[in-house]
Design brief:
Blueprint lengths: L1 E5 L2 E3 L5 E8 L7 E7 L5 E7 L9 E3 L7 E6 L4 E6 L8 E8 L3 E3 L3 E5 L2
Parallel strand pairs: 2-11
Antiparallel strand pairs: 1-3, 3-8, 4-5, 4-9, 5-6, 7-8, 9-10, 9-11
């Protein structure tokens, strides 16, 4: 089982990044996909969650801190979840993790997002 994240990096305040998370070794479409982040010295915070069938009403949820600045979606044909973040702020700096939540729980290795001048 693997969850591999990509797309992190350094960006200036106000910039955008799109993170990807590709799963293998499990039935991706049977799992809700969630994005967490962890800043230095802080606990892990839920950023966004995408239900198994995104077409359902209310299938995507965002943390209040990311509401209006983030879009999360999934492509089950590619076993991939995405998190696009816009208008990034220095306080968004963290390691971002994807999480597959279902019959089991799987975590990716994390990808660093740094927002600074």
């Amino acid at each position: 089982v693997q969850l591999v994240e990509s797309g992190g990096g350094w960006v200036q305040p106000g910039g955008s990044l799109t993170l990807s998370c590709t799963g293998s070794g499990f039935t991706f479409r049977s799992y809700a996909m969630r994005w967490f982040r962890q800043a230095p010295g802080e606990g892990r915070e839920l950023v966004a969650a995408v239900a198994i069938l995104q077409g359902d009403s209310g299938a995507t949820r965002y943390a209040e801190s990311m509401e209006g600045r983030a879009t999360a979606w999934r492509d089950n044909s590619k076993n991939t979840a995405y998190l696009q973040m816009n208008d990034l702020k220095p306080e968004d700096t963290a390691v971002y993790y994807c999480n597959a939540w279902g019959p089991e729980t799987y975590w990716g290795q994390g990808t660093q997002v740094t927002v600074s001048w």
